[in-house]
Every structure is written in structure tokens, then in C-alpha cells.
Amino acid sequence: MAEEIATPSGSADGVDRCPKCGASDVVQLEDQHQFMCSFCRHRWGFERLDEAMGLSEGIADLTGVSYSTAASDIVSDDALVTLKCDGCGSEVVVDTDRTLQARCHWCKHVLSLNNRIPNGAVPDGILPFSVTREQAMAHIQRFAEERRSFALPAFADTFTPANVMGVYLPYMTVDGNISARLDGIGEITRRTTHSKEHGTTYYVDRYGVTRMLDIEIDDLIVESNFEKANIRSATSTNNVINAILPFDVKNIVRFDAHFLGEDYTSQRRDMDIDEAEGVAANHFMTVARGASEASVAQYRRGVRWESEQLRIDGVRWTSVLLPVWLYGFVENRKGTPVTHYIAVNGRTGATMGSVPINTRKAAMLAWGIAIGVSVVTWPLGFAMLVAS
Ligand SMILES: [Zn+2]
Ligand SMILES: [Zn+2]
User: Fold this and answer.
1) The whole model's pTM is what?
2) With contact defined as beta carbons under 8 Å apart, do 76 and 118 qualify?
3) Which ligand places an atom closest to the C-alpha of 102?
4) How far apart are CA 48 and CA 126, in angstroms?
5) In the chain, which stretches have pLDDT less than 50?
6) CA 118 to CA 268: how far, in whole Å?
7) What is the 149 CA–ligand 1 centroid distance (Å)?
8) Environment of ion ligand 2 (residues, CB < 5 A)
9) If DSSP states are collapsed to H, E and C, what string results for the chain?
10) How far is the centre of ligand 1, averaged over its atoms, from the C-alpha of 161 (Å)?
11) Which pLDDT belongs to residue 241?
């Protein structure tokens, strides 16, 4: 039942040339919708991923697990990929943990990786930066200023917004054809009485409430790097990234390494679909709870869901890179380094950070509440995908 959707082949790996004159120096224009050859000034556009792969269609008909070529399981840990430069024949190494482009030291051609390699580094799509470095620096500056009074002195003293880096972080997008069933108790207040003796008394009617929903979910995004998903790393407050969501995923375009250029780095996907499914299921359940809200409005005192069941009839996965400006600061907490980030959404400018706190000045910071899911049924095809 697991079905692979072919990722269209990208521009050539190796020297990726201007279609008109063959030069390899390509820049992305400010308006974000075209590349331009630095040599002959020829311009060409790029294609939206949705259109290239038909990803907005057929969600209601999804059954089992579908995934793009670029989202298929990682079979190699090797981050270093060697390309043969077709300008001069030398071998050029690309460190895919950081980027998907490198310049040949000998002939200065730019070499790009645009097609699937077994280490998960090349995605289906990319959402180009539209917030500039200067704008990101201003957002970070404002964020840090507002929190200066309770930040650690070491953070406040060394804060330099110029140290901001543009990073493309790996995510999976997932479409879901799901059914959810929620069972719980809804309450309506009929009347209240007040007395000196007993204070306020509420007379409440209680109802058993059940909601069954069929939902199509389009382009949910899920982290696909363990460090960012905060699964393996206890020493990093990376959940700040979740706070700068959402991204305008409909504007994701077909991947081309030219988007990285020399200005941005990228991080490699290191999670497979079976490792990202739990997070996706949580997101699906959150969507289902939200979708039920309008239909339980009559229970004005609220509804407490006591059982939640989620059946995932079909899912479709692709892999993408999303743009984030990051400012990092390492705090030495009793001998253990803890990395803090201020992150700026590279599309919307939304800013969030974990400024190291002087605990004597600030009482408490809470990041959010984890949401549990009672029952998740994945399609049968999933087991087959994992086993094969
Ligand atoms: Zn050209
Ligand atoms: Zn060369």
C-alpha cells in the first residue's frame, strides 16, 4: 500500500548552468520569483511544488501511505558527497550537513546537488527567504531589548544581532485523510443562586457528547531533524522554532540549490517517515479537536473530551526546507552548555526566542502543554513500509 510519488528530476547535479549562456553564477532576484544569470542577465522562473507534483489534489481519496522520492527512507549517514566538476574534471566535496552547493576551487564553477541522494539532504521543495538579514536583525534586536531586564548579564553584554545566520531547516509536509471520534462530557449552566451562607451555587446540566469527523488535512508541517524535533537533545531549547510557525507552505517551490547560494546554510533531514508519524498524529488530533469546536458551542460551560480516537486512512509525505534566521547563544549552566536561540520566521518575521534567564529576576517560563492522543490507528500500509 505504500506508494512512491516520483519527485520530478531537478536541474543537473554538478555544474548547474544558465540555460542561455552556460555560466554557473546564478543569483536569486529580490522579488523571489526568478533566478538571474550574473553573466548574461538571462532570467528564468521557478515552479510551485504543489503544481509540479499535484499535491493539493485528491486528499479525500488518499489511502495508505504515499511519499515522494525525496521523502523516502534515509539509507546513508554520509554527509559528504563528492561531485565531479564538469568544468575542469576535479572532484568537489559538498558537506550536505551545511549546504547543497560548493564552488570548485580550481575553475570557480558553482556545483549544486539538486537530485535525490540517499542521505536525505535533497528535499522536494523549498520556501525561499523573503525577510532580509537587516529585517531579521531588527526583529532580534527588538526581541532582546524587550527582555533585557531579566536576561543573564552575559547574554545582554555579548548580544550582537549581526551574528544572525540564515538557515534552511528540514521539515516534512503531510496531507492526511483522517477520521476522528471524540467522546466526552458537555456542560450547560441552567441557573446560579447566591446566598450569604453558601456563596454562589451553579445548577448545571451534563450531557454525554460524541463527535465523529471526517477531515482532509492539507500541508501540515512536521520537523524532520531530531535536534529540532527535540527528541534526542535535552540541552537545547529548540522548541522556539515551533513558536514562529506557521509558514505559507502553499508558496513552496520545487527545490533548486541556487536558493542556498553563499548566503544561507541548510540542515539535513535525519528522520524517516516512521519517526515523524507520532508528531503528525498529534497535529491531526489537534486539528480534529479544533474542527469539533463550532459544533459543541451550545455547551457553554465547556466540553471535556475523555476519549479521542483517530483513524488515519491515508497520508502523503514530502520533504521541504523552510527559512529561519537564527541567533545562537551558549549558556554555561553548572558546567553543561545549553544553546539558546532567537529565531525569526524567514517569511513572516514572527520572532521567538529562549533568552537565558537570570532566575533571581524572573519567576517562571512555560513553553506549552503537551497534548496526548489516546488511540491512533495508522494505515496497514505503514507497517509494510517500515518492514521492507
Ligand atoms: Zn547566462
Ligand atoms: Zn572545476
Assistant:
1) 0.82
2) yes
3) 2
4) 9
5) 231-235, 361-388
6) 11
7) 53
8) 85, 87-88, 104, 106-107, 109
9) CCEEECCCCCCCCEECCCCCCCCCCEEECCCCCEEEECCCCCEEECCEHHHHHCCCCCHHHCCEEEEEHHHCCCCCCCCEEEEECCCCCCEEEEECCCCCEEECCCCCCEEECCCCCCCCCCCCEECCCCCCHHHHHHHHHHHHHHCHHHECHHHHHHCCHHHCEEEEEEEEEEEEEEEEEEEEEEEEEEEEEEECCCEEEEEEEEEEEEEEEEEEEEEEEEECCHHHHCCCCCCECCCHHHHCCCCCHHHCEECCHHHCCCCEEECCCCCCHHHHHHHHHHHHHHHHHHHHHHHHCCCCCEEEEEEEEEEEEEEEEEEEEEEEEEEEEEEEECCEEEEEEEEEECCCCCEEECCCECCCCCCCCCCCCCCCCCEEECCHHHHHHHHC
10) 36
11) 76
| pLDDT at residue 151 in the model | 77
Under 8 Å CB-to-CB from 200, ≥6 apart: which residues?
A: 192, 193, 194
For β-strands 64-68 and 3-5, DSSP reports them as: parallel
> And the C-alpha cell for 259?
536558493
CA of 75 from ligand 2 middle (Å) equals 29
Of the ligands numbered here, which is closest to the C-alpha atom of 37? 1
Alpha carbon distance 176, 279 (integer Å): 13
The pLDDT of residue 233 is 47
Quick one: what percent of the chain has pLDDT higher than 90? 35
